[in-house]
Design a protein that fits this description.
Structural class: alpha/beta
Radius of gyration: 26 Å
Number of strands: 26
Helix content: 40-55%
Largest sheet: 10 strands, mixed
Distance between the termini: 44 Å
Length: about 675
Amino acid sequence: MNTGKNTKCPTGFLKEGFNKKKNFNIIQPTHDSALTAMQKTGKQQCLGKKSWPQINNINAWMLSAETATFMKWGGLGMIASELPENFNNVFSRNNHHISIVTPMYLGDTGKKSASFESGVYYGAEGKSIELQKIKTLKIPFLNERKTLTSYKTDYYQGTLNGVDYIFINCEHFFSINPHIKNPSTQDGCYVLNEYNINEVERFAFFSKAVYLLLTEYVTDKTKKQSVPNILIANDWHSGALAGLCKYDTITRVRSGNLLPTDAESIQSIPIVHIAHHLGYQGWDFPNTAKILNSLYEHNTATVFKNAKAVKNANPRTTNTLIVHDCYNQSSGNFHLADRVVTVSINYMEEVSKELGFGYDFRDILKIRKNHRTFFGIVNGYDKRLISPNPKKIEHINDYFKDFRFKVYDENSLDKKLNNKQECIRLLSRLATSEEYKKQTIPLIETYRFKDISALESKADKIPFICATSRLVEQKGYDIAAQAIVKLITENAKTRREFPIFVLGGAGDLEQYELLKKLKNDVEQISSKAAERIFVFRGYRDEFAYALQLAADFYLMPSRFEPCGLTQMEAMAKGSLPVAMSTGGLVDTINDREDGFRTEVFFAEGVRVYGSNITAQKFKNNINAYADTLYKALKCFYITPNILKLMTINAMKKDFSWTVPNGSVYKYYKLFKTGSL
């Protein structure tokens, strides 16, 4: 809550609505050497003109809005927990360490809840940590009346799983109690909260709270706290950090509020920005002036007028702090971070070549790639957590009752056949017992499930195919649906057993309607084939896990997939991915060796992957994906020995962070040298 004092907005602010003018002036000629240096910063950072400091012992802060340990919504929460844990496990003996800095979320969204009681923080993911307060600061930020207000902010520290955590506690910004107007699609740390704070304002405040804590550590001459020598910004949420460290320090020196030596210390700390999906950037047009004024206070106009971007072909990105006329939280770090990393090598190529992937930052990322300040490192995964393991499968059996799924590995695939049979029984039970369905998957909506228990005896002859990704356009369920209709039409002419398809997940009603239409369309072709199509909406971890234990194939017709974790999970369980050749799917799936990928991939009608000849042959992603699905099923029906070998290869594959030459070693080299 606000416990500070309200003051009138000082001079030096940008006026409200400045970004609504068509021709607002940005870069100002200057004879001030400090401002000249500010204008050159963007170019120097993108071109890598600043030398990487010598770092003997890595002491990094990883800034993340999400962590899988305390508040997870997606893959960036996984990397925020697993990278530090695995890095520290390997390198802490040599005095290298990553700490995590994250908000202390408090409240209850209905799906996620977190609390802080008697010195113990209980996160939204069922984990807790003992904490001690280490600092209290007043963080200036504009309130709803556009008045600069000091918000009391407490910082707490604790250790869990070999990682030091710093939690930032400010109820006004980090409460997750939803506002009455919060959209139903917004949850977790992305809610419009009870104080009418949206996600962009929340994480702009987060960036500033980290920056001011860093400033406190640097200026504290008693050296009670260890100053980090690397800052890792996990996606757009901490995208304002580089601007504060590179720009705000300059204006504070000019106004006499920061010693030049302290400013230099802050500026010299390398910032590594990890970019996940570039479609999420942190846009907020209505609050453009409010957020910028909150970040830079009375120096905002000076900073903004000198925030010159590296020369590029896009007139929308000539200023590092906004895109065209809108505040964009990613923009600062894309321009000003010392290094940018994305979560797979192929996605790095896509975003630096194609507008459909790189958006407004394509040209900047191309410049960075050419000058070795932009890299791709595939996300790791702890294989112990995703392989079939006794503890998880015992839980599955206890949860579903009367079912006996078995533990298996690449040397005992006969047990996977047992799991396929069990899953056929499970789907049939869900189809025939409404009471059982309500008990086991109460929040999942199913559409016309049919009893297929008669298929159990010939399960080895029937391909089992699943997809349990989120129901969003990205995942390409519409592409899969059209490919399946084509496949069923052709398969109806043969005597081959129709596959079992189980498709669904949490997400959009529109995508669910599309899957329901798929079942109805197939029914017009073959009622027998339609009985084997199961579509649902909602998510239950036990249900998704059971499907992967049973599946021969896992569908991934993604329109984009920066890294992808689901294909890694599926492969570890011997469920071969049938995937589009995009993003991290190219880096993690070897076609015809441990999975199947399309020969070509199109984005917005343009060939992104594959040869021109192949592109002319298939013409679009639907044809390319249908062909790949056909090849996967042909392998199942005609060459089962080859399929078995591929399944063994997939299960042997290890994406763990700490395997030889694994991702933690790549990050270690990057942190030490600034390059790979």
